[in-house]
What does this fold into?
Amino acid sequence: MKQIAIYGKGGIGKSTVAAHISAALANRGLKVMQVGCDPKHDSTRLLTCGRAVVTVLDYLQKTSPDQRQREDIIDVGYGGVWCVEAGGPKPGVGCAGRGILTTFDLIKKLGVMDSGLDVVIYDVLGDVVCGGFAVPLRYEYADEVYIVTSGEFMSLYAANNILKGVHNYDIQPRLGGLIFNHKGLAEEELRVQRFAAAVGLPICAVIPRSEDFAIAEQMACTLFQSSHSKLHSLFEDLAAQMAAEHQLYPAHPLDPEQLEELILNRYVMPSSKDIAYEDKASKLTPDAPAEKATTLLSLNVRRREPLHGCAFNGAVNVAIQVQDAVTIAHGPRSCAHASYQTITSAGRKSQFERGVSMPAHILPPLISSDLNEGRLIFGGISELRKRIIEVQACQPRAIFVVTTCPTGIIGDNLEEIMDLDDHHKTRLIALEADGNISGDYLQGMITAYVETARALIDPHITPAGELVNIIGEKTIASVTEPNLKIIKELLRQIGVGINCRFICQTTVGEIAGFKKAPLNLLAYDDYMGRLMRDHLGLNYGAEFYSRPFPRGFEETSRWLAEIAAFFGKSDLVNGIINAYEELYRLQIAGLRPALEGKRLMVVTYNHDIDWILEPALDLGMEVCLVGILNYSQDNHFRSRFKGQFPLIEPYPQDRRLEDVARLKPDIFLSNHALSAYDSGVFTDVIPLCPQVGFLSGVDLAQRWTQIFRHNINEGWKRDAALYRKYLA
Amino acid sequence: MRPCTENIWPDAFSGAIFALEGIRDVVVILNGPTGCKFYHSAISDYQYPRDLSFDPLNYPEIYYFGQPRVPATFLDGNDYIYGAASKLEKILQRVGGKPQYKLVTVVNSPGAALIGDDLQRLARTHIPQVPCICIENTGFSGVFAEGFQNALLQLLSHLNPPGHQGVEPYVNLVGLSIYHKHYRGSIKELQRLLSLCGVKVQTTMCCGNSLEELRNFTRARLNVVLDPDYGLEVCQWMKSHHHMPYLLPASGLPLGFEATERWITQVCSALGVNPLPALEDIESCRARAFLHLSRYNSVTGLPRGASFAVKTEPALAAAVTIWLHSYLGMLPAAIELLPSIHHCTAQKLEDYLRCYGLHQAFHSKFMDCGADVLLSDGNTLGQAQLLQKQPFCGIEISLPSLGYLDVVDKSLLGASGAMLLIEQILNGLRFVYS
It folds into this structure.
């Protein structure tokens, strides 16, 4: 079986040429199939006497997989030619390239290629615009490629692009040559000849302009059926040439400048601007001011690093925190599934380990629009509308729609659903994350924060009362709810309440009333926290307290005192702090005998570790090294103890075993314990999101004391050899 | 707001990845973004651990992103426009060249599947010396089991095994994945019962075998289908391409004593070996179960009449429902089935329930009607705990898990699977009826 792909610019006459080649091959007694790879599905119209063929993609949409049969997608045309049309979406929607991939997949699955065919002709859309339209060029398909062209510049430009596509795919020469279809332009033949010579291809046939084609088109048949045209022999010769063994050529496309010079006799001047791609990311300061919503970028995106996670997932993780809203993941189910399981993993863990229910993480209000292949080819907006209307029946206060990579790629336009936004009942909020096309996980969070604020915060409310908002809690950290409890209690003691948690376990109403609170508290002074602080300050006039949730005695004392001062309640603070100070000093005194003089090494992603350093230094421990790892969530290491320990920032990932061996710390602290395989040193784990309050860090030191006091050595760590023997 | 959401099940994309991740010395390269990678790497590592630590610093290589499994090309917006050929070239050369991998597989993420990079050509060009299979499109929102079988079929058709031998009484167990709850224990239990009858298991396909063990699948005399959604097409393919007979036991999954007895009897009969040693083993388990059930029943009258609900895949749901009803005398209140390929299993279950006038359960949901026992996945159990006012006992029979770490392998299948379910039900009912 020989497979031949016919390419060429749209409207150049490929389908007419392809149909006549198919017909001529069939006249030679060969069993021929012609596959039209163009959404407008009229490649085989001349072979079927104008009869429209059921397209493969329509067929796939309407037929269940177990009922699909080869005969259903094949229409038998002139000379017994099997006519197949891929079809595709309407212009401007869906993904026609994916449609071609799907068509070829079905043809293969139904065994069409194993049906004793002699020749398959692929009639492919204009240009090799994407991977989908290049499928016929793949190794298992086209044995030969022909390009139909006229002498117009754009036609030759397309031909040259097709050569580039062939060049990308070629392992061996596969080009048969050019088929020159006359348009009747001046010097047209000369241009085609120059082009053919430059790219090293023969002109296999010259098709003159002829009324015969117009007559045949009108009769919806080939020249072989419509007349005794002189042109019969032209296609017969071409078919004979294709059917026989003959020389094939490699692709040698021209540069665009060469092409213009060759065809238009025009010299292309080099650009006068020498564009220097300055690496602005490296010059960014940690706290570059936010100007407007569209310029808020995650650290990962700004640094142009490989993206960690996807914006879709980040946006979903924020949106599901609005308890009276539903989030629709617009895309295939796999995207929603992965997101859902990531969210519920924290909920299951909390429920199982501590018996604490985190409703948003146990029953996240997340559903999927479950786009299948058909929807992705033809566009998924109609399915999304249906899903939104279904969800509206559940009467949520808001619906978030978050887009995935596939819906981003096919270009589903969420503007088309915004007529369903109902300001009085259910707000509709579009989060166009487009999977990771817009960026990483944190970029998605930013999008969700910004768009939710824009849609829901009531700008007319004025601050009043003794209320605070909490900004930027880590929604999946297990410590978030226990920390809130501590903060809530500290605030309660000075008579201050919480207005809105932006955005964590909150409601549409609470977000709407965001501006009620005169003061805003950052949960974390990390990159995201600072970004939100700047954005909410700039756009909503939100006043922020300068420090994040406090960890350790010193920080918590100051935090509480300053917030109390803001609300004019300083008189309530001293008693609280004195009580905790007594407790802290007592605990440090108790731990000191076991830990004094011990060497501590810390390698961590945390950029604020004063809550560890404070008790360690108060205990008289020696901090022999602090290594700060590069982290997508922060870029601003800070410590009030700087200068009291050796610091490496950023710390190279692969250096820690060497440093542990060199420094011989008594305790190695990291976010994960060193493997038992790797090291004999005592290691302990510090959480990425630590506990807040007066006694953070002391509890950790309590644990080390126990271990040193009892000289604990685990027997299981001696079984590494057994692991290797039985399981590795 | 009325709750309108429920657990979102994995689709064919995850099915394909977990199929290939279940083979010990195969690497799955994901041609996709890290957003698709992190979850699949974590689950593969959790379900079929091969590494000692979760510490991301142990896996510093660029494509691994701090995880031991499923290296990825970390596609971004530009790659969707310009194609991912250069990233694929690099990852193939770097990861594909590692000696511990006997086969390289490349799976496109849903986004990558739309852009149509020619994976096979890139693999042929850049790692011509390494066996490689590429799955360009696992399907969008397709059934998980379909993705699993399609990946397995592609793998088998690539393996070029020796001709069908089938002399020794070896079988292949087909139709379990590493995403099945207690898959390891279930396989061990079936291996144990079969070995009592002198039958060996050549391979379980994608549940921890090496590529070499899998390559020799033709050594088995018989392929035994466990769950048709996960294994029937594969067995049909092995029959047509390698002339290997297969058995689809009428009793369904070997879950519960009677189904296990019938399953063993059918397998042994097909192989011409004596099933008695295994049947005796099951009998001894039944005796022990009888002791406990009798004592429990004498005090409480239970488990007879206790209600239960099931939400899982059809083959598992059918096996659990029929056994709990026929052996323990429990009454199905709600049966919710996940999407499947073969609708006959669901039909059989509905027919069974109709026979006993219980088919209403087929159209009921646990969240609406409640039940004493709910057998499902950890998410559904957690949600029921949040929403259900009445006490109930939750038993995990599917993933994801609530998080209990199983150090001892447990089984859902075979005699020990039956014992485990009885143990969980009896203890659970104590809570419900206390």
